[in-house]
Design brief:
- By secondary structure, the chain is of the alpha+beta class.
- Helix content is 35%, strand content 21%.
- The strands form 2 sheets. It has a 5-stranded mixed beta barrel with strand order 1-2-3-5-4. Strands 7-6-8 form a 3-stranded antiparallel sheet.
- A hairpin with a 3-residue loop joins strand 1 and strand 2.
- The chain is elongated and about 60 Å long.
- The structure holds zinc ion.
- The site of zinc ion has 7 residues, from helix 4.
Length: 272
Amino acid sequence: MGVYQTDALVIRSREYGESDRLLTLFSREQGKLHAVAKGVRKPRSKQRAGAQLFTYADFLLYHGKTLDTINQASPKESFAFLWGDLEKSLAASAIAELLDIGTLQGQPYPELFSLTLAGLFLLEQFDPAIVQAAYTLRSLTYLGYRPKLSECAECGRPIKENRIFFSPEDGGVICGQCLGDNARLGRWLSAGSLAFMRQLISVDLAKLDRLRWNEGMKKEILTSLQFLSEQIFNQRLKSWSMGSRLANVGQNQSGKDGHVDERSNLDGTGED
Ligand SMILES: [Zn+2]
């Protein structure tokens, strides 16, 4: 294959060797792929910007025997606003992590690529947690895991209860009659949270800012979506857990503004 070009998002960036980075790219045409960015940890490297987490760039890659190498990266968008905002950068990390565990290498997902790019752009203006929740429900839908949120996943009857059991194993919500006494893994949702989740899937993405939730709904929905995704892909979502810990700290402390530059700690440095 030699040299090839692709436009892609950097969804993971890990230190590699003495001065390199191993990037996970999500490409519009080729889906997920891994490539080495050589020498980018040297202070004067011209390729630093293109190896940055969440950067959207045009990449020129060399197809190697074991790993592809980045010859050149021309950034189109660096999402610089993520740098100074911990909540936004955690939501971006949550999106990137879900995309990473939910997709297979070398398989194109053009709709998911567009959704991910749109999601990152939306983080600039909108509530990052709402963007994260909408992204999750929509990406699960693209991947064939749309949860049943209107009818009981077992008997198909419309859900009328005020508190509803959400069971990832069963693929959605379970009505009071079907729930019975059997032990199931899941989470309880209020009728309001359930209605909100349906809106997150159906509303025009550009109008997400019209949706309003309260802290209780936010917690219920994000916890349920994390649990659902972890059950589906059988993997822990580390940045999601980090996000919920941050939310708890935020509730217990006054004067939080989230303006901490934590981006460098989110790129997987030092892990694995
Ligand atoms: Zn039922």
